[in-house]
Amino acid sequence: MKHVPAAFGVFLLAAAVSASVKAQQNTPPPPDDASKTGEVEATNLDQVIVTGVRTPKAVDKIPGAITLVSKQEVERTLGLTEDATAVLARQVPGYSEASQAMSNTGETLRGRIALRLFDGIPQTSPLREGNRSGTFTDMGLVGRIEVINGPSASEGIGAQGGIINYLSKTPTKDGSETTVTSRYSTQNGDDSESWKLGVTYAYKADDFDLLTAASFIDRGISYDGRGRRIGMNASGSIADSKADNLFIKWGMNFGEAGEQRLQGSFSRFNVQGNNNYHWVPGDRERGITDTAERGRIPGSKAEFNDFTQFAFSYTHGDFFAGTLKVDLYKADQAMRYPAENGDDRQDPEIAPLGTLWDQSEIHSNKQGLRTAWTRPQLFGVDGLEMRVGLDLVEDETEQSLALTHRVWVPPMTYKSTAPYMQLSYDIGPVTLSGGLRREDGELSVDDYTTTWFRDRRFVQGGKLSYEETLANFGAIWRLPAGFSVFASYGEGFGLPNVGIPLRNLQCSNDSPEGTQPDGCPNDPQATVAGIVDLQPIIADNREIGLNWQGQRGSFGLSHYKSDSDFGVSLAVDPISRDFVMVRAPVEIKGYEFNGEYNFSDQWKATALYSRIRGKTTFVTNGPLDKEMGINDISPDKIGASLTWNFLPRGNVILGATKWLDRDINEGRSGEEHTKGYTLYDLTVNYETEKYGKFTLGVENLTDKFYILSWSQIDFYRNYFAGRGRVISLTHTINF
Length: 735
Hints:
mainly beta
């Protein structure tokens, strides 16, 4: 992995797009195409092209924080687990602990929510973050992941922590190639067995290319290091589930010199619980974790993630002496959550209190147009480049309590028009960059009435305007002997999790009994316009750092500071046990290190370190003296791996990830104590000439029993142990 730590703020990353534009085909390949054994060879940074800038650009000319996760690193993680976010937790310093679930609750990037993209298309709604955006495709068709760290307005909305862009594979060889992947894993229990079958077909000839992929995964239940079943996550589990995926991407180049390209893609992904098990509470005081038992809650339906998207793009490499890129997309997403009988689901007119089980569903539909025109040698000046464009997006989202057909979050629509301009100037070893983006958005919310638990209060809908001009600038100076230094500033823009304050609105003068479902006749009219928590989140990010790239290795280190005058942190309602938003100033600081070194052709080592600290206030207008907890800020992380190429086509990789202990807010509100742990993993790869590639993977090599960091703090139904040892055998063959 090549990591170039720097703040994204400065940047040119206006969007992350499909990996197979014509411009990319005319550039040297990124380091994804390293040796078949999985060894990632040292590559000159001038040859590492970042597609996230809409037009390719060498990494060492971008003063921004970029972590490139190669195809080999994705495959290494897939040899251990099919978890979609596990590779990020292992390879990206600022990414938090993976949840090991369908839900990615508590998973943040540098202490904030990241915008997740698939070939440049958002995988979640800015209006209702349902913590399901991390599981949206089969990771087997992902060829590369670009992580742009730090708040940025380059994508318009939602990238408060940065951008994570999953790029699908692209045909690289002339002719046809079919890849069949099969995988079997077990924890030595009949109901823990999991298997996968995936087929990918790639075709490339002259000016046409095609990629099709289909896969099916059947997962068993999970066990911890003590052989105890792990409980079903309240927001959705991937244990005891099935997933199927279909992906088609085609492209054609045309024009006198093949300078134009038309590309289209279709993606359909569904993961659904089998509903064979139900959650059983443990005993936190006695150290007994939540578990699962066979059987289902009567009347309940299986949870699912269902994502469908279409995308079309047009590229012209010689459009008025520049490059034009136009992307059009449409995405439909639906998420169902497990059945619960919490206080906020009750309604005595439907069933006696405490007996009503209900399931929430989020439905989101989005469509957008993204354009970019890049003009090098602006005004005839060598090294001066301009990028301008206009982005349009419309997102419609709602959330319901599906079994009883109740509105939980009313239909919401967000429309945005965002013109932008970026300039970069290469002056010898120095690159300067800067730009502006204008976010002009409008949020429309329908009239609605809150649930019985929230007093059945009528809320008048309406429209809210969001208008912000967001700037970024920075510089990178390439020094002799492979060193470079950088400094940058950027502003990020995002909406809060709009659905939470909307559904939690209730009477202002609650009686001692709590719920008073009379519609709040003594309160003034409630309106969407009067909800202060719907104001936007503006984050200022500053960063400095140092990079080195040599013949045998590379490293990068950086320090960043991210401030929000009216930020967001998460807390838990002591009655409903559900999340509530806290709007107050937020300050996040952090340090990152990432490096690798090739001792010889046979041995390579990697290492990373992340330290993040976040502070907010205990009281309104108070000092920033409250340390932000596990919902937002993860404990310090250390990661390392050692690769031994014992044969020309075989290697062994031993990895380790360590989370450190943390104690915050001792004796005060928000007190937390988390105990760290260290996990080891092992992969053995061997590629035969005739029978394909075999991979033996062992996750949690020592079968350690541990409690996930997020589960160590008492929220709602969250006392989970992490997975014990998992042994997997993967076979991949090309023909």
